[in-house]
Amino acid sequence: METIVLGAGIAGVTTAYWLAQDGRAVTVVDRREGVALETSFANAGLVAPGHSYTWASPRAPAILLKSLYSGGQALQLRLSADPHMWAWCARFLRNCTAARSRENTARKVRLCRYAQEQLQQLTAKEQLQYDRISRGLLYLYRDAASFARGCSHMSILTENGLQLETLDAAQVLAREPALEHARETIAGAIYCPTDESGDARQFTRELQKVCERLGVSFVFDTPISRIEASGDRVTGVRTPQGLIEGDDFVLALGSYSPILARALGYRLAIYPVKGYSATFPAGPEHRPPHIGGVDEDHLVAWARFGERLRFTATAEFAGYDTRHEPADFAPMLRAARELFPNGADYTKPSYWAGLRPMTPEGTPLIGRTRHRNLFLNTGHGHMGWTMSCGTAQLLADIMAGRTTELDLAGMTIT
Q1: How many other β-carbons are positioned within 10 Å of the β-carbon of residue 274?
Q2: Among 87, 113, 230, 309, who pairs with 344 as Cys (CB 3.0-4.6 Å)?
Q3: How many domains does the structure of the chain reveal?
């Protein structure tokens, strides 16, 4: 049985791996020249069930409204005539109640915990190397009020099996001595000892090699113009090189999934949210952090990959525009220098901006569609690195007719 996976990001490649493990013949198709060149290219690098909170919360509408006239907001809305953005925002706002926020967060953390288990098993089985650090992550707070709010929200994660610890400033420095310079600005932190970090692109490239040994074919430089169907079955995907046919098809194109799905009558609630990252060299003369984390008051994340230190920030609703300029990174770099003044060579940045495929609920779309041989594994948002191995295993179970280990309520379209 030939399965065609559309998309060679981390979701597509992990899907290809699990399907190949089931004995399927798999072909991965992507418009780029290699794997992990879109959202997976330079993301935050955090495998973070401890940061599973949904973005749709009672506080989010005020933050979005303020972003229209004030810069520096964690969520930034750029007004557009795009009707798909407005439809997405309307659904997002409906999820901003306390009850829905709690329900969506509970689903999200359960998926993230399951997915991390799959990632760890895969890493051990295939001996994958991707600058992994498994010493937990810090969720850092700069003032007492925000720290108290963070601690009050912990219960939704701990009730769903996640281990979390609260640390005062001295305990934070004991965990991460590189924060010494910022001692006076630290109110405390929430520490998740089981969280991790690692280079998602490097992981995906290593897994590609494993997939190829399993017989998976990769077709690059091949844009997909449309998915063709007859009745309730997909017959192939149209490309400049012709029609690619198969028995089953998996849509794993992230932010671009809803564009191709529209012609088939689907209205996938996925919209791109732009994020920014800056990566710096960190040599022996520098003092980078030993573990990753998030500055919760500025929503700036950091992660170390060998002799590189990366910072990521911002969630900007700007459509499919990935353009950026140095000024866009200024707030992020101010926070980086405050936290780790000698953490890296800040004069040699590698800037990047990419699109997170967000659903209003914050959980991905997995599984069957109205077309009998079309399946979804898309919409992972800012947690694709954390979720991908789990959603790939879940989809493989669905396609094989097995009962999934996780309840997929809220994550399907059927």
Answers
A1: 23
A2: 309
A3: 1
285 contact partners, CB below 8 Å, separation of at least 6: none
**For 307, which DSSP code?**
T
- Write the CB contacts of 318 (distance below 8 Å, at least 6 apart in sequence): 76, 78, 80, 272, 274
Distances (CA, A) of 285 to 282, 291, 292, 342, 343: 8, 18, 19, 9, 9
Rg (CA), the chain: 21
The per-residue DSSP string of 165-214 comes to EEE-HHHHHHH-GGGGGGGGG--EEEEETT-EE--HHHHHHHHHHHHHHT
Residues whose CB is less than 8 angstroms from the CB of residue 408 and which lie 6 or more positions away in sequence, other chains included: 366, 367, 394
Number of C-alpha atoms within 13 angstroms, CB side, residue 308?
A: 18
Give CA–CA dist 373/219, Å, rounded: 20
Residue whose C-alpha is closest to residue 318's, from 269, 353, 361: 353
What whole-number distance in Å separates Cα of residue 232 and Cα of residue 229? 7
User: Is residue 331 a part of any domain in this protein?
Assistant: yes
- Express each pLDDT in 277-305 by its tens digit: 999 999 999 999 999 999 999 999 999 99
Which domain CATH number covers 185? 3.30.9.10
Which residue type occupies 325? E
Q: Are strands 308-317 and 75-77 parallel, antiparallel or unpaired?
A: parallel
β-sheet bridge partners, residue 18: none
| Polymer length of the chain | 414
Residue 281 lies in a domain: yes
Q: How many CB atoms lie within 10 A of CB 100?
A: 18
* CA distances (Å), origin 174, targets 138, 170, 179, 290: 12, 6, 9, 11
pLDDT in tens, 350-371: 999 999 999 999 999 999 999 9
**Full domain range(s) for residue 340:** 47-81+132-197+271-358
Residues 260, 262, 266, 271, CA torsion sign: positive
Torsion of CA 40, 43, 49, 55, to 10 degrees: -100
Picking from 30, 41, 38, the residue whose alpha carbon sits closest to that of residue 220 is 30
